[in-house]
Structures are given as structure tokens and as C-alpha cells.
Amino acid sequence: MTAKIIDGKQVAARLRESVAARTALLPFKPGLAVVLVGEDPASTVYVRNKDRAANAAGIAASTLRLPMETTQAELLATIARLNADNDVDGILVQLPLPPQIDARAVIEAIDPAKDVDGFHPVNVGRLHDGRATLVPCTPLGVMKLLAEAGVSLRGTRALVLGRSSIVGKPAAALLTAADATVTIAHSRTRDLAAECRRAEVLVAAVGRAELVRGDWIATDAVVIDVGINRLPDGRLVGDVAFDEAATVAGAITPVPGGVGPMTIACLLENTVTAAVARRG
Ligand code: GUN
Predict the structure, then answer these.
(1) pLDDT tens-digit map of 194-248
(2) Domain at 256, CATH number
(3) Which member of 45, 47, 61, 276 lies 3.0 to 4.6 Å from 54 by CB, making a disulfide possible if both were Cys?
């Protein structure tokens, strides 16, 4: 048996096009401010890609590059200025932040109406209360891929592997809201393999290269691999051993080209959502 490959590149390209079509009809240009502190190489690449994709979709995106030594007070002052700027609809502070800065305090300083990452406690609370407005981009992308793959979630046994605030917990909330029966597993879970084998939908987001083996996967399960891990030989792999899993699963996302491209596309969608909600 060979799994259907869920093509995130293609789904993301269509979503970016639909965002561009929406922005073209708006009487204003949605604004996105991305804040990058320091020069972490991976963050620098992500931020450049966000900027490009946003501008291509008709969003006025700008990146504020602050030095590594930026103090918390300086960053909070920047956030306050962006909160007050009527042309800015979305604010994204790229994580991780340097050690002298308390990321939690920075996220809490962002106007929840402009929090396109969906990390502010107000947006987290709304998500868990079933009243989501701005939802974290990666789990939102996971849900869109499941929808594209034609997966019916109602009553399904879903396993989320990983309990981060950025992916695992919000993914579990979205799956619950879609009427799946959700288990969250993590590094302290006893017999992870057995938990995985029960899952009809498996979302892997632990950041451990090829942790999930083919014999952990139920026949015909849908596997969404959020992990992006670089092996010593330079190859990029997910949290799932793809070749093994693809012989068992019903459908699976590749790495790269699965969830990754969806994250930025969902950020663009969140920016338009925030802009329309703010400006009517
Ligand atoms: N760093 C890694 N992923 C993310 C994300 O989704 N948002 C932000 N702001 N930073 C990140």
C-alpha cells in the first residue's frame, strides 16, 4: 500500500493566490510588521520569506531589524509604536528572542487584534473556548491540509505528538473543535509507539528526526508531519520516517513541501483577517 502524498506546496500556493485576490478587492492595503531581533540564520531566512510572500500577496510588509543587544524596554517601545500605528494590521515578533528579553512579556504587549501569530493569551483563550479569531499559523495550516486531503475529523481518534504552545496545544484545540477525540502525547508519554498505533490522524510536532517509525502507524492513518530537522549529512527530514510511513499510511505530508509552506500562507491569511476585522 502506498500513501497519498498531501502536497503542501500546491495547497499553500492556492491559499496565497486566494489571499492576493482578497487584498486586491480591499479599499486599503493590509499592513504587516515583522520584528527580527538579532541575526539568527534560520530566523533571518524565515523573515525574508515572510516579507516576500506578503508583498507578493498585496500586503504592505516591512521588517524591523533590531540589534542582538536590544533591551526588553526598547522592544516593548517598538511594540507600543506598532500597536498605535493605524497602517499596521499585523505584528509578528520572530522567535526565539535573545536571552535578555522575556518573550512572554513581549507577546503580551502586542495588541491582540494585531496578533497574527495567535500567541497572545487573549487569542489562546478564545481558541480554547471555541471562539478562535487569530489562530497560530502552523496548526491552522495543519487543519487546512487535513481538509484538503478530505479527512472527516468528526469522531476520529487523533494523536498530537508534542505539547508546545506554538503547535501541539493549538493543534489539539483545533482538532477538538472539529469533533475529533484528541490525545496529546509528549516526551514523558509511556509507550509512545502504542499511542501512535491507535491514531487515525497523527500530527507529529516534536522536533526529533524520524522518531515515528513505520510500524508505529496504523494502516490507512493520515499523517501530518510538522517537524523539520536537519541530519548531519545535510538532509531535511520530518519527525516521521517518511519512506516507512508511506507504505502504511493512507495519506502523508512530505518534508519539505508539506506543512512548512502552509505556515507563511496562513500568516498572510491571518493578516487579512486582522485587517478586515480592524478596519471593517
Ligand atoms: N519561530 C518559529 N516559528 C515561529 C512562529 O510561528 N512565529 C514566530 N513569531 N516565530 C517563530
Answers:
(1) 999 999 999 999 999 999 999 999 999 999 999 999 999 999 999 999 999 999 9
(2) 3.40.50.720
(3) 61
User: Which residue has its alpha carbon closest to ligand 1 atom 3?
Assistant: 95
Q: In the numeric block, which cell numbers belong to residue 234? A: 545535510
CATH code assigned at 73: 3.40.50.10860
Are 107 and 142 in a shared domain? no
Facing residues of 9 across strands? none
Give 137 Cα–ligand 1 centroid separation in angstroms: 9
Q: What is the DSSP-derived secondary structure letter of residue 112? A: G
- Flag whether 186 is in a domain: yes
State how beta strands 251-252 and 4-5 pair: parallel
CA–centroid distance, 117 to ligand 1, in Å, is 7
In a domain, 16, yes or no: no
| CA-nearest residue, atom 9 of ligand 1 | 94
3-state DSSP assignment of residue 230:
strand
pTM of the model: 0.97
Does residue 15 sit in helix, strand or coil?
helix
Clarify whether residues 98 and 164 are in a common domain.
Answer: no
117 Cβ closer than 6 Å to some ligand 1 atom: yes
